[in-house]
Amino acid sequence: MSSEFKLENRLCFRLYAASREVIKQLRPFLEALDLTYTQYLVMVVLWEGGTCSVKQLGQRLYLDSGTLTPVIKNLEKKELLRRFRSAEDERVVMTEITDSGKALQRRANEMTADMQACMALDKSEKAALGDLLNKLLPQ
Amino acid sequence: MSSEFKLENRLCFRLYAASREVIKQLRPFLEALDLTYTQYLVMVVLWEGGTCSVKQLGQRLYLDSGTLTPVIKNLEKKELLRRFRSAEDERVVMTEITDSGKALQRRANEMTADMQACMALDKSEKAALGDLLNKLLPQ
DNA sequence: CCCAATTTAATTGTGTTCAATTTAATTATA
DNA sequence: TATAATTAAATTGAACACAATTAAATTGGG
């Protein structure tokens, strides 16, 4: 068995496994916020901008409406965001953060440093990893 | 909005997005093999060793029986592997590659170089990324 | 203006992922 | 040696991911 065929030597596998491991490490923090990882990512976008269309969310998160629609509906059920159709273009569904959503941001921000400390990498390693991962993303 | 809170600056998000993007790039190859990504990873392990218990598969892939059991049953349905209980320890379920499974290996191996070329990284970048990802995996 | 093409979400169906629980087999211990 | 603890899979239920399809709204060419 030549080494390039070995599971552990496949970069696609290490990437997939590392991604899941990191998300697993974040789970205690996410549970404290009562959010899943995908819900958390949607909230990160809304904490930045306050409002966002489903299409724009999809472009930021690299997810389609098949994934986002149920996630957004769950966040609406938790009253962390509101959903409404754009008046200018009725095809567009907008999400808008609520007061509860904004309140959650304070607790989430306090955790951010600890969450980022989960990854056992120093500053320069994180920068290097970030640059390499960027090369794997579209554009 | 301080930059460490921005979605695109979060390493956990880049990792998650990059992992899914790479798997998306691999999909045409996987379709040619009529395998999902997870099914492919199980077959990579069996192509190496011929047989493997569910527990060992879980340790290699960082997946539990809740994920692996249905994946393995689907591979059994495709007749790429057989399942049987170990005679020494009836708790242990072993998987063993079939002749069809071995035949698929030849086609898969021919694709491996092209699959690995999907990632737009040169040799040294791949080595660096591999090392950084290893630091994020258990042990 | 009219209708075909495009765009945006939602829906449907398949297949993971993972936590929690259950079942069966094995091992350890009183 | 009974039985308590542990181990290995399977099961269950919730929540993604994603391809393919559908429906509604908008845009663009004749």
Structure write-up:
2 copies of one chain form a homodimer. The first copy, chain A, has helices at 11-32, 37-49, 54-61, 65-77, 99-117, 123-136; strands at 51-53, 81-85, 93-97. Chain A has a single domain (3-136), classed as Orthogonal Bundle (Arc Repressor Mutant, subunit A), CATH 1.10.10. Chain A is 64% helix and 9% strand. Chain A has 139 residues and is mainly alpha-helical. A 3-stranded antiparallel beta sheet of chain A has the order 1-3-2. Chain A has 6 helices and 3 strands, in the order ααβααββαα. The model of chain A has no long low-confidence stretch (mean pLDDT 97). In chain A, strand 2 and strand 3 form a beta hairpin. Chain A binds a DNA duplex (30 and 30 nucleotides) through residues 20, 24, 27, 36-39, 53-55, 63-71, 74, 89-93.
Uncertain segments of chain A: none
Q: Multimeric state of these chains?
A: homodimer
Rg of chain A over CA atoms, rounded to whole Å, is 18 Å
Secondary-structure element string of chain A: HHEHHEEHH
What is the fourth-level CATH superfamily of chain A? Answer: Winged helix-like DNA-binding domain superfamily/Winged helix DNA-binding domain
- CATH architecture of chain A, please? Orthogonal Bundle
Helix share, percent of chain A: 55-70%
Helix/strand/pairing class of chain A, anyone? Answer: mainly alpha
Kindly estimate the percentage of residues of chain A that lie in beta strands according to DSSP. 5-15%
The level 1 CATH classification of chain A is: Mainly Alpha
Largest sheet of chain A: 3 strands, antiparallel
How many distinct beta strands of chain A?
Answer: 3
Mean pLDDT of chain A: 97
The CATH topology of chain A comes to: Arc Repressor Mutant, subunit A
Strand order of the largest sheet of chain A: 1-3-2
The gross shape of chain A turns out to be globular
In angstroms, what separates the terminal alpha carbons of chain A?
36 Å
Structural domain tally of chain A: 1
Q: Which pair of protein chains has the largest interface, and what are the residue counts?
A: A-B, 51 and 51 residues
Per DSSP, the total helix count of chain A is 6
